[in-house]
Amino acid sequence: MVNYIDAATAPLKNTGAIRLYGSDAFEAMRKACQVTARCLDALVPIVKPGVTTNEIDRFVFEFGMDHGVLPATLNYRGYRHSVCTSINHVVCHGIPDDKPLREGDIVNIDVTYVVDGWHGDSSRMYPVGEIKRSAERLLEVTHECLMRGIAAVRPGARTGAIGAAIQSFAEAQRCSVVRDFCGHGVGQLFHDSPNILHYGKADEGPEIREGMIFTIEPMINLGKPHVKVLADGWTAVTRDRSLTAQYEHAVGVTATGCEIFTLSPAGLDRPGLPPLQG
Fold it and tell me: What is the pLDDT of residues 191-217, one digit of tens each?
């Protein structure tokens, strides 16, 4: 049975209950998420051939320092970097290093800043120079999966509706959905209930209620959905080494749908791709 609790009076730990937030929390999330969104915007001209992911990591740390905030990943469960950088067949949790990015790479950059105790969590895909049409199409499909998942969010629906919207579109495009990782509740905790699966059936999962805050972050593969985690304990890769992509937004459920907290103020939610129409 799913329990829902008033976030204002709940203990600051993941108890498995789903927190329902008020207007003050939504304002705090707007503030935190917009710092993250502005950082992701600022990375657009930086991500290019020859740049290392360690340089990206330093930029994210210094951007946070300039704004008086810390990256949530730094020293999180022993992770020693300010960002995750996942290149080509790396599904998520790629660790920055000194290897230069190459022309044709695609890289997911996942940033979370903690602002006054609130977590602004978002990620985007960045093309490195000119990329192949197959990679560009994967980015287009993955971003559309994210937006279709967001469009399914409304009070009274089930969280399974999010996954069903993502899975049905991805598979119609002959892509696959990673099952091993999911979206999650977010707020004063980095990772909270509920889990947001990116596959499933519309009538499954907890009921979506006004005041919930969570991430939607589909990982879509050109090949099969299977992944493995490398010996470093963090880096997840596609087993068949097929290209993979991910976009992530943090959203808050409103009376009529949801608010996307992490939208780019510069309209750069899908860098390197044509702007969305309408």
Answer: 999 999 999 999 999 999 999 999 999
Give Cα separations from 28 to 25, 117, 156, 167, 186 (angstroms).
5, 9, 25, 31, 12
Annotated ligand binding at 180? The verdict is no
Q: pLDDT digits over 35-82, tens only?
A: 999 999 999 999 999 999 999 999 999 999 999 999 999 999 999 999
**Residue 191 annotated in ligand binding:** yes
pLDDT (0 to 100) of residue 278: 58
47-260 — its CATH code?
3.90.230.10
Instruction: Please indicate if the annotation marks 110 as binding a ligand.
Output: yes
- 6 appears as a binding residue in the annotation: no
- Distance set, CA 16 to CA 86, 163, 166, 182, 195 (Å): 29, 20, 24, 15, 10
Q: How far apart are CA 63 and CA 78, in angstroms?
A: 22
- Was 259 annotated as part of a binding site? no
